[in-house]
């Protein structure tokens, strides 16, 4: 059955990432500029964490009132850093994994994005939307 197919069939490889040394304001810019809800954190090519848009909302305290973007960025960059915001132990799936394994991990851990790795190198990401789209094509 199709659910045993390789995860590479549904994973996205055009990744938007943030490096662990970049400012938190860049993360805010990433979330505001696209339809992304999860951003893997890398050090070089190595996956070191993941941040969701909910994580950023949690620390932005409702955007600190009525500050404009520039003021908010200054506050975020002064108060937080990427390692302090990210999930430092992201659950991931090896590139050799199956679609079924990806679905089980997403359901078990109750999240919506799963980094795909080759060793410790980030090579893709699978989201719950990717899996729903795959199921709708069966």
Features:
Inosine 5'-monophosphate dehydrogenase; CBS_dom; 138 residues; three-stranded mixed β-sheet; elongated; CBS-domain; Diverse_CBS-Domain; alpha/beta
What would a concise description of this structure say?
This protein is an alpha/beta fold and 138 residues long. It has helices spanning 24-33, 53-60, 69-79, 82-85, 99-109, 128-136, and strands at residues 18-19, 38-43, 46-52, 93-94, 113-118, 121-127.
Describe this structure in words.
By secondary structure, the chain is α/β, with parallel strands linked by helices. The protein has one domain: CBS-domain. It is built from six helices and six strands. The chain has helices at residues 24-33, 53-60, 69-79, 82-85, 99-109, 128-136; strands spanning 18-19, 38-43, 46-52, 93-94, 113-118, 121-127. Strands 1-2-3 form a three-stranded mixed beta sheet. The protein has a three-stranded mixed beta sheet with strand order 4-5-6. Helix 1 crosses helix 3 (69-79).
């Amino acid at each position: 059955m199709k659910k045993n197919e390789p995860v590479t069939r549904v994973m996205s490889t055009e990744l938007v990432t943030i490096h662990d040394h970049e400012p938190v304001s860049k993360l805010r810019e990433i979330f505001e500029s696209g339809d992304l809800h999860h951003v893997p954190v890398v050090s070089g090519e190595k996956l070191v964490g993941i941040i969701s848009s909910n994580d950023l909302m949690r620390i932005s305290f409702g955007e600190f009132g009525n500050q404009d973007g520039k003021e908010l960025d200054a506050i975020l960059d002064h108060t937080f850093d990427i390692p302090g915001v990210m999930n430092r132990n992201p659950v991931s799936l090896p590139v050799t994994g199956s679609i079924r394994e990806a679905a089980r991990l997403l359901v078990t851990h109750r999240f919506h994005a799963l980094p795909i790795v080759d060793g410790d190198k980030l090579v893709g990401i699978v989201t719950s939307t990717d899996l729903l789209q795959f199921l709708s094509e069966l």
